[in-house]
Write a structure and sequence with these properties.
The complex is a heterodimer.
Chain A (H helix, E strand, L loop, with lengths): L3 H11 L1 H23 L14 H10 L5 E3 L5 H7 L3 H8 L33 H15 L5 E6 L6 H12 L4 E7 L2 E2 L2 E2 H4 L16 E5 L3 H16 L5 E6 L19 H6 L3 H11 L5 H24 L15
Parallel strand pairs in A: 1-2, 2-3, 3-7, 6-7
Antiparallel strand pairs in A: 4-5
Chain B lengths: L2 E3 H15 L3 E5 L15 H5 L4 E3 L4 H13 L3 E6 L9 H11 L12 E6 L14 H5 L5 E4 L3 H13 L4 E6 L6 E3 L14 E4 L4 E5 L3 H11 L4 E5 L2 E3 L3 H11 L2 E8 L5 H11 L9 E5 L8 H7 L3 H14 L14
Helix pairs in contact in B: 1-6, 3-4, 7-11
The chains are: A alpha/beta, B alpha/beta.
Chain lengths: 327, 337
């Protein structure tokens, strides 16, 4: 059986150019969402992930579509990387009937079981034990699927982080815990909230591998994921990966991040994941400067068409709120 | 018919579902090797093995969350919360994750998870281990909520809860675990969630209750000069408003007996619905017999006074029938304090 999300996932897994295209897609998508919010077309709240594209794409490249992923409310990038369509994500953000969950969820609530995306989590840390549970299913059923929890640095201070990883470790559950350390938990820099620099160090207390990964590089993320997933599938238990990355946007909505340390953004931008990966693909001869530019233009054009299309799409009828309360 | 204690009936119900469905697993503190602190999972580890019956760390947020993830992906976890108060540290996973996932997945994900918790006062466990706390979960669309009142109902409710495609919380009055009663087992004994049981029939008043208070109310009616329809709700989410309306149409009087605080107890919801939908049938004020608004006291006599007793139920209903006006609760009557 095939579907657009699954095809998008396969394309990303087999084609490095597609990985580049997806990172560009995520960046432009998030930039556009921010604009749409400013224009008042997106209401409520939204959390964008510019700067973190390589983490999402690296995870999606390594994981199978049958591996189960829990991720956060900053989840547009992970969803798009896993294969969820731009239409599904944008329509949900804009509260339209064609959205990922029919317009009743919003920016923080996406879901696509076909590519392993469990309902995304708007509560910090909540997806960590839930991923352990999805891994429990694989263990009890004797499959070699795995689960992946994607969460931020802020989540590493909440009880669910400790409890979920501890449980996974004692039961040797096939799960990979991926911390996107984007340096900020909401409006607070990590050094204000957390007494250690490397969150991967926390793995020691659960007796599992803790690995620091360059979160600006989709190849590095994919490689580390492959190692951790192989360990999980072999029955050797979970790993904690800390992907060091950077959130270009503020926490949410119109937050311009005035609390940012001066010069910090510029330093990280020198290692921008899209610029770095573009240069690598050009070096490898997979892309040329011209083909890369064309590709980026094409992504931008498709996005504008998508925005126009979703803007014209219907809002849910009132009856939609009564659906799916109970199974 | 075999006699069982309520804890045995619960273990029997879980075991029957585990035999019928290999996706049912049991998680909780000391539920495996020890058979449960209240012996509600006795024998399950031996029969079903350590893959399906697991002792967890003392880590409710962790293992309730794991149950949510397992339920989303194909298992039917039954989680034990030793004392319902411990659910406080895991409530996010029940109320905000599990109860919302079907909705927040556009119907693509279901969460067939059961959370069992022991509840209630009467055993001297003190203020932090004696609450019923059903109202923590009551105002939660997406969740189902049941309360056991006897070995037979406990057996039927747990089996239905495990089969339900939604997250279900089943509250088990701790004081009843040792109660023995006839228990008919088998597939015919499932109790439909949301269906009340007419525990006794009578004419003068409709008494709606649940959990451990069912026993108290039946003791009361046995010694009273009046007779009552005694309705054991068995479920709060959803609750059987039809059964209550049907009875009140005939008796004209509604009394609620609750092991919960006066303010904000589950009876407030029942009273409000009946005051509206049953207005024209009511011939007397709706009367709530509850605990006072204080933490559960430890001292033996204090705890006994705190809980509605059969004698107290009789005297309150006596007063209601004699005067036609609302009896004050004992803590508001000067002579009783």
């Amino acid at each position: 059986m095939s579907s657009v999300p699954l095809e998008r996932r396969r394309a990303l897994q087999t084609d490095r150019v597609e990985r580049f295209r997806r990172m560009v897609e995520i960046r432009s998508f998030e930039d556009r969402v921010k604009d749409l919010f400013a224009e008042g077309i997106v209401h409520g709240t939204t959390h964008t992930c510019q700067g973190q594209e390589a983490v999402a794409v690296g995870i999606a490249a390594a994981a199978r579509p049958t591996d189960q992923v829990t991720c956060t409310y900053r989840g547009h990038g992970v969803a798009l990387a896993l294969g969820v369509t731009g239409e599904s994500v944008l329509a949900e953000i804009m509260g339209r009937v064609g959205g990922s969950v029919g317009g009743v969820g919003g920016s923080m609530h996406l879901c696509e079981p076909e590519v392993g995306l469990l309902p995304t989590f708007a509560i910090i840390g909540a997806g960590i034990p839930v991923a352990a549970g999805a891994a429990l299913t694989a263990q009890v059923n004797g499959t070699d699927d795995a689960a992946i929890a994607v969460f931020g640095d802020g989540a590493s201070n909440i009880g669910a982080f400790h409890e979920g990883i501890n449980l996974a470790a004692i039961w040797k559950l096939p799960v990979v815990f991926v911390c996107e350390n984007n340096q900020y938990g909401e409006y607070s820099r990590i050094d204000v909230t957390t007494p250690i620099e490397d969150l991967a160090d926390r793995a020691v207390s659960y007796g599992i591998p803790g690995v620091i990964v360059n979160g600006q590089d989709p190849d590095a993320v994919e490689q580390a994921m492959n190692t951790a997933l192989a360990r999980a599938r072999a029955g050797d238990g979970p790993s904690l990966l800390e992907a060091k990355t950077y959130r270009y946007a503020g926490h949410s909505r119109a937050d311009t991040a005035p609390y940012r340390v001066p010069g910090e953004f510029e330093r990280w931008y020198e290692r921008d994941p899209i610029n770095t990966f573009r240069a690598r693909l050009i070096d490898e001869g997979v892309l040329t400067a011209e083909s890369a530019e064309q590709l980026e233009k094409a992504v931008g054009g498709a996005l504008e068409e998508l925005v126009a299309q979703v803007k014209e799409s219907p809002f849910p009828e009132p009856a939609a709120m009564f659906r799916n309360v109970y199974a | 018919m075999p006699k069982m204690r309520m804890n045995q009936a619960i273990a029997a119900g879980i075991a029957d579902e585990m035999r019928a469905d290999a996706s049912v697993v049991v998680l909780g503190e000391d539920v495996a090797a020890a058979g449960g602190p209240f012996k509600t999972s006795d024998g399950l580890l031996d029969e079903f093995g350590p893959l399906r019956v697991r002792d967890t760390p003392i880590s409710e947020m962790g293992f309730v969350g794991a149950a949510v993830g397992a339920a989303c992906t194909g298992l039917r976890p039954v989680v034990e919360i030793m004392f319902v108060e411990f659910l406080g540290v895991a409530l996010d996973q029940v109320s905000t994750e599990a109860a919302k996932f079907h909705y927040l997945s556009g119907g693509k994900v279901t969460v067939p998870m059961v959370v069992r918790a022991s509840v209630g006062a009467g055993l001297g466990f003190g203020a932090q281990h004696s609450q019923t706390l059903e109202t923590w979960m009551f105002a939660t669309p997406g969740l189902k909520l049941a309360v056991a009142s006897s070995p037979q109902n406990a057996y039927g409710l747990i089996r239905s809860a495990i089969r339900d495609p939604n997250p279900v919380v089943v509250l088990e009055p701790r004081v009843l675990y040792a109660t023995r009663g006839d228990v008919e087992t088998g597939d015919d004994q499932l109790v439909q969630l949301g269906s009340a049981q007419l525990a006794e029939s009578g004419d003068d008043v409709t008494i709606v209750t649940l959990g451990a208070m069912v026993r108290t109310v039946l003791e009361a009616t046995a010694m009273a000069s009046w007779s009552a329809d005694v309705i054991d709700l068995r479920s709060l989410l959803p609750w059987d408003v039809e059964a209550v309306l049907f009875s009140v149409e005939r008796t004209g009087r509604l009394v609620l007996v609750e092991e919960s605080p006066f303010t904000g107890g589950w009876g407030v919801e029942v009273a409000a619905r009946l005051a509206g939908e049953g207005f024209r049938h009511l011939t007397a004020p709706i009367t709530r017999i509850t605990c006072p608004d204080v933490p559960v006291p430890f001292g033996k006599e204090l705890e006994a006074r705190f809980l509605p007793s059969a004698e107290y139920v009789v005297s309150q209903v006596d007063e209601l029938l004699a005067t036609g006006s609302l009896p004050s609760p004992w803590w508001k009557k000067k002579e009783s304090r």
